[in-house]
Design a protein that fits this description.
Layout (H helix, E strand, L loop, with lengths): L1 E5 L4 E9 L39 E10 L6 E11 L2 E2 L4 H7 L1 E2 L2 E12 L2 E8 L7 E5 L4 H4 L14 E4 L4 E8 L2
Length: 179
């Protein structure tokens, strides 16, 4: 669901929310039959019916506020936004999911301020203001049960699980011009 609201001539507000009930409706056995169709009837499924789908939080949301005003021949603005994503898993299969662990929820804040005139804009911004260590994915470079498992590879006694992390706090100045 998306909502955009012009609260005043100068203040624009927007919000978005998403609720997911993303679950398997049948067992995932991990193999197909001779015709290439997934097999869903097995004694020990890798993910039973009702298992939540990976990388899908139950809730995601965002808020954005932008205030612009006139000052001489310029249009200054300030903007703030917040994004939230709930806890997720990174694998569908139960055993692999336990090895990789859950990706925690995160909340990220961005701020920007700038000025616009005619076709150019100058914008000072801070992305990920509070330097949240958001995790977008977890994976291994080989089978999760080999590379991710503790004690199997001597060089990595706790397993070798990689994390795709969100952008750290970034402060920047952007100039743009429309042609």
């Amino acid at each position: 669901m998306d909502v955009n609201f012009a609260a005043t001539y100068n203040l624009q507000l927007s919000a978005g929310v998403a609720f997911y009930d993303a679950k398997l409706t049948e067992n995932y056995c991990g193999f197909t039959d001779e015709n290439g169709n997934p097999v869903t009837d097995c004694a020990d499924p890798e993910a039973p019916s009702g298992t939540r789908l990976p990388v899908t939080a139950e809730f995601k949301g965002n808020l954005n506020a932008r205030y612009t005003f006139d000052w001489k021949d310029y249009e200054p603005f300030i903007q703030g936004s917040v994004v939230y994503e709930g806890r997720r898993t990174s694998d569908l299969r139960i055993l692999e999911r336990e090895i990789l662990g859950d990706m925690p929820s995160y909340t990220m804040f961005d701020l920007s301020a700038g000025i616009r005139k005619d076709s150019w804009t100058l914008n000072l911004y801070v992305k990920n203001l509070f330097d949240e260590r958001a995790e977008f994915n977890r994976f291994t470079m080989c089978a999760v049960t080999v590379c991710g498992a503790s004690g199997l590879v001597p060089e990595y006694p706790n397993g070798q699980v990689y994390t795709v992390a969100g952008q750290p706090r970034t402060i920047g100045l952007r100039f743009s011009q429309e042609f």
